[in-house]
Amino acid sequence: MSDGRWLVVGLGNPGPQYAGNRHNVGQMVLDELARRAGSPFSAKGGGLLSRRPQAATAEVRIGTGPGGVPGPRAVLAKPTTYMNTSGGPVAALARYYDVPADHVVMVHDELDIPFGDVRLKIGGGEGGHNGLRDTTKALGTKDYLRVRVGIGRPPGRMDVADFVLRDFAKPEQKELPFLVDDAADAVELLVTEGLEKAQLKFHTRTP
Question: At which positions is tRNA bound (predicted)?
C-alpha cells in the first residue's frame, strides 16, 4: 500500500432537512471520524474547487498504526453539492491533494445490504446510486474504494427515492450509533491495514 494521503468522502445531501436521512449515513460516518480525530470540518473554496465552497473538509490522521503511532494522513470530505453532483468536488479534491483513485474511499448508503451491516469493495457497479455514478464519471474510473453502509430495502411498495430521503425509523435510530461506529471502524481498518483485512473482519461477522 502507498504511504500517500487518503481522501475519504461521505456522501449525502446538504442542509439540515436532509441530515438525518438514510441517504446521509455516509456523512454521519464522516462526522464520527472527524470527532475521533478531534478535527472539525471547515469549508473549502476559492481556487481549490470553485468560487464557492463545494465541500467541508478536515485534514486528519486516520486510526492508529503499529506501536500506537498515528495512522496515515487523510482528508475527510463532505460534498456540499446535492448527491447527484457529488463527483465534481470529489475529483477536484483528488486532483488538489494528488490522491490516486485507489486511495479514494467513498462512504455511502447501500440498499442491497441489510440495515446494520457494513461491506467494503473496490470498483464494480454503482447499483443505481447517483452519488457513485457521478463520482465514477468525474474520476474517469470505477476503481475507487467503497465502504457500503447497509440501510436495507424499502418496505412494501414504498418508492426507493422516498425511502432514502426519509429519516431512519425509530427502531433503527436506536441502532444507528452502532452502525455509524462500525462503519467508521471499517474506514480506519481499510486505511491502516488494507482492504482484505477489513473485508475479513466485516464480511465474516456473525449477528
Answer: 18, 82, 84, 130
Q: Which of 23, 103, 108, 129 is an active site residue?
A: 23
Predicted TM-score (pTM) of this structure:
0.92
* Residue 84 labeled ligand binder: yes
96 is in an annotated binding site: no
| Architecture of the domain made up of 6-203 | 3-Layer(aba) Sandwich (3.40)
Q: How many Å separate Cα 87 from the centre of its chain?
A: 13
Which pLDDT tens digit goes with each residue over 32-64?
A: 999 999 999 987 544 454 445 589 999 999 987
Instruction: Render pLDDT for 177-207 as a digit per residue (tens, 0 to 9).
Output: 999 999 999 999 999 999 999 999 999 865 5
- Those residues with Cβ within 8 angstroms of residue 34's Cβ, 6 or more apart along the chain or in another chain: 40, 41, 58, 60, 76
Asked about 129 being catalytic, the answer comes back as no
